[in-house]
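Q: Second attempt. The first request was missing the SMILES, so the protein and zinc ion are both included now.
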Amino acid sequence: MLINKLSKVLKFFFPKLIWKNNHLGSEKIIYLTFDDGPTPEVTQYVLELLKKYKAQATFFCIGKNIESNQNLAKLILLEGHKIGNHTMNHVNSWHVSSQEYFNEYLACENVINMLGTNSVGFRPPYGRISYFMYHKLVDYTNIFMWTFISGDYNKNNKPDQIINSAKKSIRDGSILVFHDSHKAYSILSNILEPILKYGAQNNFIFKTL
Ligand SMILES: [Zn+2]
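A: Got both inputs this time. The predicted holo structure:
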């Protein structure tokens, strides 16, 4: 996939981006992440499945979605998961000024703080971050990328293929990206449970970043 080639380039120019989460201890850990929520019904679906598999995860929320679904955002925290910053309006770092982008980061951070918690880190929408913003934001926060992006937002992707490539890519410390959005739901609802099941059967535990 093109995005995987791009990630090699990014790793060279942006060395502090976190692609794989190294951790202490001997447990085998998978980090599930859900971007673009909270979204009514879809986030609830995800939360129920996570509970069934005693899995914890990280939700990189869009600030305006937290504002319009505050109870859902609180439920994420109540169930032991963590929230990360995905900008206020899901802006593309290549399309706005650096100041505007930084304000988007701060506004989302503020909305997360209003929930009574700190964000666990930042994930740039579209996986794009300018060199300038990268240098500015790494002083403030951890920037989490991924080891595996499910492509659940693209209806042309086949659930079975996604599940198979997820299984092949999963290692200790893997960060997997899904989306708790309406757009992704039809695929997400076919891939999430098989991936959780695979992780559990192979003695992985699912933790927050
Ligand atoms: Zn996103």
